[in-house]
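Posting this for the archive.
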Amino acid sequence: MSTREVPVVIITGYLGSGKTTLMQNLLKQEKRKIALIVNDMGSINIDASILNMTGNQVSQIEMVEMQNGCICCTLRDEFMAEIERLSEDKSVEVIFVEASGISEPSAIAGAFLNYEEMTENTRVFLKTVVSVVDVDRIYREFLHNLTSDEDAEDGDVINLIMDQIEFCNLMILNKTDLLTKEQLKEVKEGLRALQQEAEMIECVNGEVDLETILNRDEFNFDEVEAYSAVQRALNKCEHDDEKACVDEYGISSFVFEEKRPFNRKAFVKFVESYPEMLIRTKGYIWFSDDWKHVQLFEQAGRNSSITELSEWVSAWPKEELDKVVNDFPDIKDEWDEIYGDRCNQVVFIGKGYEKAEIVKLLYDCIEEVG
């Protein structure tokens, strides 16, 4: 049985959002004995170097630097080993983890909770997943057009930011001084379209009270996952063929499902003139010119990306396919005679759009395979 004495707080947020500044401010408060893990993708852990410069406060805690990898994947086992080691210090009251800017919080939390379930007598438990949000960037790049060519980045950046916002139980809205009250209100409404339950704390320069982060209900993976707009749409709208589901914020969502493939050129053309009323889109698709690969399609605000992922099971060699079907017969429940497990399943979230119009545009991209 777990004694569950040491809470762990994971701090996520994209590069430049203010995670390190937040940690600097928390360490100065001297309210609790804190152990800290800092994860940076580079060979030199810049964030740890900055924190070391804050002076005596950091010397009163133990700080572990983890680099050349990410704790949500390549450094996962090392990460959990360090968490366990730090918890053995009976004076440690809380462990903070500053995740790399490109970490996926759902993967970190999933690995952590799996470890907690599999390990007897562990003293640690996941207390909070914090997403530090650069509200100025959200305003410029998610809600409005980019301000200059220099700001233009691949669409997967803003989509990663969206993932970090969707999977948390506390949002720290940083850099609020860079926006007007009206602009900040617009940002908060946009964030609520993605994440309706997580508490929002507004701040400037990462100045947040430590107890505000710690004094809250314990992290619940299933509840937090269900908070996200994408998951809500899948749960509520998957079998609604007549209209989109509308919530109390006026945000509507629906799931588009179709076995037949998209024509790549037609779909790319659709994306290039993407309906402005759509706030967030995420799902798996496939193209008629590639029967092998699963494609992840994501859109957030003015940014979108199509990323080649794994292979469809039905594209595997016959020997491997037969073994999988034998071991997991349920896979055949929704198997199509022509397409196998290939399908398009995409969640659309927006405000003020007509579902029928979006669906028509999508079907115009579908290619008949004879």
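The domain at 6-227 is CATH 3.40.50.300 (Rossmann fold). Residues 41-60, 146-155, 238-245 have pLDDT under 50 and may be disordered.
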